[in-house]
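#random but structural
TW: two for the price of one
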Amino acid sequence: MMNWQLLRYLIASYTRSYRYFAPFSFMIISVLLLYSYKPNPVMDSYAVTSTLLFMGFAWMGMTFLNHDQGRQTSLLLLHTGSAGVFYVTQYAVLVTFSAIMSTMAVIYPILTGMFNEPVGMERFVIAWLAHLLLSLLGSAISLYFQSGWIENQGRAIGLICIVVILSIAGLSVVSSLPGKMTFMAYILPPVSLMIDMLMHADEQGLIKCAWALLYTFGYTAVLFLVYLNRACTKDAAELVRKSG
């Protein structure tokens, strides 16, 4: 359900726009600054860099989705022949960039000897999955704040900043709420859950780590599927309206 030709076109279109430069620079510079001295604790450092990628991809998602101001969306939808294929391919671009940045963020400190102890395969896999999933979560959140959904982009930026901050501070926010409000823990994006998992990965064991990873994957999948359904419905309604 993905169009490879469209995928290549969207990547080329985005990179030609140079809108990728600011969010990518933020992520790369932040990681380099974090590892500007050594030694560093393994999983605590990965907790920080995965959070930076979550923030970076929430930002990058908006720049990607808005990079042509929607001028070519209708034409691309027409050539693709399926709204579902178009939106899946569009998100696949963010998945591609997420996989690249996650791999770089996890491998860089290992290759440069920035840690105070060996990482090991188990911690490496957990860290890589955490970086990838938080990157995809940030990308999925950005889908709801693009210009096609919120016309006032100043308001959209403010709202997504609030969501990002609440997501990172999720566990602290929920713990300060009354008992009847604990359901908020399941509404907020599980960024703080992942941060806590990474910081205590050695103590929690593989099963608890796997649960946190699976929960984040499921949360991201639901966000994307809801977006996909609403976006396709919106396009169908717009087509009916234009055809009279």
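TW: number two ↓
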Amino acid sequence: MSLVNTVRNTLVPVHKEGYRFIAIFFVVSLVLGFLWEPLTWIGFLLTAWCAYFFRDPERMTPIDDDLVISPADGRVSSIAMVTPPDELGLGPEPMLRISVFMNVFNCHVNRAPVTGTISRIAYRAGKFVNAELDKASHENERNGLVIQTKHGAIGVVQIAGLVARRIICWKYENASLDAGERFGLIRFGSRLDVFLPDGVEPRVSLGQTAIAGETVLAEFGSAKGPVISRRA
């Protein structure tokens, strides 16, 4: 039984959104094999990567309404005061924006950064420039959620990237969310922006690796001040 449990704990579930893509990669691999056998193995490697891309592991989310949890796996690419997108309706004043950039090897299932109720979902068509660029927040295709919490309205924006061409959100307005709960997915490289109101302090640094549903991005009501870090 210990061996069975070890295998079960090692294998990461694949999100259902990835099933058809994995099937397509697999079928294409077989077809390529008829043309030239080595292409089969290349196709199988790409199929394995596709399954890895759509992985959906369980996460242990801190239970604390004063914490803002990372909505995505990836690298913290920006911590700045920025005016939120107009479609969110969060006003013209700058808010603290923490951005997490996902490359094609990161898990792309998106999770709620806070507990609350979705008051608005706003999709906006746009470009597909590199999601690491600051202008991607305003120029790229995106889907924004406004979550009402005890600390005020918090914006979460799914942003398409250079490769990403499909933003998926399976929640609706007036739906309740728990911190760490899955709410969407972006295919093949992208970025998540979190817009936070006054009274919050960052708990991450630029370049830090974040884990969706686990890493604390920011904290409300803390007198500790922002995080100071150094590269070891």
